[in-house]
Amino acid sequence: MKPVKIGILGLGTVGGGTVNVLQRNADVVRGRAGRDVIITRASAQNLTRSRICDTQGIQLTTDPFEVVNDPDIDIILELMGGLSPAKELVLQAIANGKHVITANKALIALHGNEIFKKASERGVMVAFEAAVAGGVPIIKAIREGLSGNQIEWLAGIINGTGNFILTEMRDKGRDFNDVLAEAQALGYAEADPTFDVEGIDAGHKLTILASIAFGIPLQFDKVYTEGITQITRDDVAYAEELGYRIKHLGIARKTPQGIELRVHPALIPERRLIANVDGVKNAVLVYGDAVGPTLYYGAGAGAEPTASAVVADVVDVVRALTSDPENRVPHLAFQPDAIVEQLVLTSEQFTTAYYLRLTAEDKPGVLAEVTKILALHQISIEAIIQKEPQPNKTTLPVIMLTQKTLEKEMNAAIAEIEALSSITGKVNRIRLETLG
After folding, report:
1. Which pLDDT score is estimated for 272?
2. Are 54 and 124 members of one domain?
3. To 5 degrees, how large is the angle CA 434–CA 435–CA 436?
């Protein structure tokens, strides 16, 4: 068979890593795909800069549309990132009858419905394993390995930057801002870290995971996102004292009321395997009705871990080149006519347990006022820690764990507690997930 020709858009970290893996493992790729795979063209913003890959034999250009419109190229690897011109390039590649592989989670989360519709109409494939959890093959696991299951819920540490920050805060007792600065210096966080620390990046990934798990359209706008900027080292220490770890989770769950799509910090029992995933690693826990819980762990970013997922998609696409489009694995796991809208709950409809930290005056009756408010909202207390007051201070921290309750009730209760004259400042609230 004639070789399959590849065009790459972007020769940065992921693009360079992909070139290296494809070149180094050419024999393995050929053995698994059944054909030679050759990179013939690539685009980059700057053709003179030094790179982590050898581009000898690859025709380079600064115009990515030249690559997309090259009639000799069979598969386009979109490794640029961002929404524009990535979206326009992907749609042009599809219109040209080319298969597309992308690592762009934002593009899939926000425009995937349109992209997959166009691809289906044109009879081409769009693969995106590298868009979630880097080198961890979680897309393939849910879409194919667990295809005989009804997925009941999944929960994942799917942003390595946030996990690194929380790990350092726990292990070394450091403050959030201090660790964030180090994460930026190490290249784990961008100069503007908003997408990582406010949950937007994880929200993009959760959008994709929920779609392939539940057979729903991609709908990032319905994902509740909350970051880790309000987590203090005291919260991390108190959680540890209570037998929990704080992790930044993406959670998708089917309930009788509807589907929960949420990204936020959560206390997890320290005995859970996922609670012990540290540093920049990613992990996703998936619960299927037949298989029960399964855990997927590994590097969530980096040149070659992400390239591992890109090249795996290359092998899959090459294998399927001669198959009829209707016999290929569907983009979002379900056949297009089986993807249906389902009710996605708002944050006030979530039901979870909670960790509450409040600063109370050191005088009799304060706790009674707080517990009365919680009781009026039918919120039961699981545990309380009341710390000794510091010298020369008239207030003390009080930590509570509650049983599961409706978030609407918790919001109302917190508003009433914060209005008490005996309570200083805001009540810090973190959800609690047992993941049992």
Report:
1. 96
2. yes
3. 90
Q: Token match 């992209």: residue?
A: 115
How far is 311 from 124, CA to CA, in rounded Å?
18
Is 72 among the domain residues?
A: yes
SS3 of residue 431 by DSSP = strand
Q: Tell me the catalytic residues.
A: 205
Buried b (16+ CB within 10 A) or exposed e, 340-360: eeeebbeeeebbbbbbbbbbb
Residues 380 and 426 reside in one and the same domain: yes
Q: What is the mean pLDDT of each run of 10 residues along the chain (436 residues)?
A: 96 97 98 97 95 96 98 98 97 98 98 98 97 97 98 98 97 96 91 95 98 98 98 96 97 97 98 96 98 97 95 97 91 96 97 97 93 97 87 88 98 98 96 94
Q: Is residue 345 part of a domain?
A: no
Write down the pLDDT at residue 326.
87
**Among all chains, which residue has been given the structure tokens 């769950």?**
253
Q: 362: closest CA among 296, 315, 422, 416?
A: 422
pLDDT score, position 388: 79
Going 214 to 270 to 230 to 195, the CA torsion angle's sign is negative
Lookup: tokens for 257: 């009321």
Domain membership flag for residue 203: yes
pTM of the entire predicted model = 0.96
- The number of folded domains in the chain is 3
Print the domain residue range for 369. 350-432
Say whether 323 sits in a helix, a strand or coil. Answer: coil
String of DSSP letters for 352-363: EEEEEEEEEESS
Cα–chain center distance at 99: 25
E strand or H helix that includes residue 196: helix 194-197
Q: What is the pLDDT of residue 125?
A: 98
Same domain (yes/no): 281, 144: yes
Determine which helix (DSSP H) or strand (DSSP E) holds 429, and give its type and residue range. Answer: strand 423-432
CATH classification at residue 72: 3.40.50.720
- Rounded to 10°, the helix 13-24/303-320 angle is 60
* Integer Cα distance of 179 and 151 in angstroms: 36
